[in-house]
Specification:
90 residues, mainly alpha, 3 helices, 0% strand, elongated
């Protein structure tokens, strides 16, 4: 999804005849001519991809909530970097 979303956005813009200028730093080259059908297909894929990304984020947050609230297995603490504490007994 991290690759599909920018590619479909680029193809949609190019297909509809718009330039793509990330942060107005430079303009990406046009590899395609003005092609409305390609632009429409890419836009449709991009819009469906948006909902897939939203769903993945919600599922990820649900998993985090499950481990924090229900399992209480300290999984989140094991994923974070270890903190060397001055107060811990040795």
């Amino acid at each position: 999804m991290m690759v599909l979303m920018p590619v479909t956005a680029y193809l949609s813009s190019m297909g509809h005849g718009f330039d793509v200028a990330p942060f107005d730093w430079f303009t990406l080259p046009r590899f395609l001519f003005h092609d409305e059908s390609l632009g429409d297909a890419a836009k449709s894929m991009h819009l469906w991809g948006r909902w897939i990304v939203y769903s993945l984020i919600v599922l990820h947050l649900a998993g985090v909530s499950y481990h924090l609230a229900f399992r209480r297995d300290r999984l989140i603490e094991r994923m974070l970097p270890h903190q060397n504490s001055q107060d811990s007994p040795e």
